[in-house]
Amino acid sequence: MALDTKAIGLLILGLIIGAAIGYGATAFTGGGQATTQEEEQKTVTYKIGFSLPLSGQLSSIGKLWEKVAYMAVDDLNKMMESYHLPYRFEAVVLDDGTTEEKALQNVQTFAQQGIKVVIGPAASSQVKAVKSFADSNHIVIISPSSTAPTLAIPNDYIFRNTGSDALQAKALAALVNHEGIKKVVVFYRDDEYGTAFADFFKREFEALGGQAVLLSYASNLADFASEVASLSSKVQSEGAEAVVLISFDTDGANILSHAKDDPVLSQIRWFSGEGIHGASELLQPSLAEWLDSIDFMGTRPVFISNPLYEEFKKKFEELTGTDPPVFSEKLYDAVFLAGWAIVRAGTYDGEAIKNALPEVAKHFYGASGWCILDENGDRAFQDYSIWTIKQVDGEYKYVDIGTYSGGSLTFTENP
Q1: Rounded CA gap, 193 and 151, in Å?
Q2: Could you give the CA distance from residue 189 to residue 224 in angstroms, rounded to a whole number?
Q3: Residue 296 · residue 270 · CB < 8 Å
Q4: Is residue 355 within 8 Å of residue 139, measured between CB atoms?
Q5: Which CATH fold would you assign to the domain 165-301+384-411?
Q6: Which of 129, 140, 206, 394 has the fewest CB atoms below 10 angstroms from its CB?
């Protein structure tokens, strides 16, 4: 269906993103006049699909992401209304269970419903599973959290509003090296995300003079006690000084809960990527106390010194009573990228939206920072935060203690 006011939409789009207010929809809702009945009759609603991990191994953060999705769509609609644009957006949320099969089923369901833009799925293995169908059926996929370098492919329908783990591997390797660790066991999920991240980390860490021994674990288990026992034996036989954990939230939390009671694993350093950040299980006192005692540290993608993120964080905390988990701001911005790409395309057509999205992203600065994409449709620039778990005012919390930007590691708090 064609948008009969494309020119107006493009003009407003240029004004809005040029002024860098990707997040600040609420700042503009009070100044506009109410739409007239005639305008309301002309309003066209477009559906945006969301394939989210409301169950399964990413459910701890997936349930919070659902709140982000609805918050973003509401803010996007307020922005459209405040500028008298006749477009509204509706969120259609499906649970993919953090599995490849359900993610593909969701995208197929969206296609049957005529939905041309899908935000998610979260995991790289899921993105890989939906890629062929999305490309063949011209369904635009915007993942806020898929990071596997193996999916950095030009001219497809997959867009990723976050940096590749080729970049994060550098940050994590620099962190582990900074801490004086010379030999690690990398304990990683046996999926697209974990395998690629582990390989890139090994390459980067050994380039810094360290040694990394790779050990995968089956990621589809309910409990990881036997895998942790194997890890303990490997660490002891290799004489490793630390473990680098590449996991999601529920599997990672289970692994750490067993590790803290292991006589070998409880006495060494642990590091992590972003996959476990935000999991509520890590803040349980018995586990958090141990993580604090061993100076557990990790990396996660962020945009440094961004006041729009602080606004987003405050609003999310007021809505949910908790901090936004990892990738929340990227999910939020993905909604605006999708909406404005539809407006810019001038038609609800997958190919047109695909072609419009990079231009929108090039000029869009939101809660996650500048969303410009590279030639592969992935975020072109990415900084990383160094995070840990500390006791703050008598309560354990996720705390950012440093940054990795432009190849340099800087601590803002004592690690």
Answers
A1: 10
A2: 11
A3: yes
A4: no
A5: Rossmann fold (3.40.50)
A6: 394
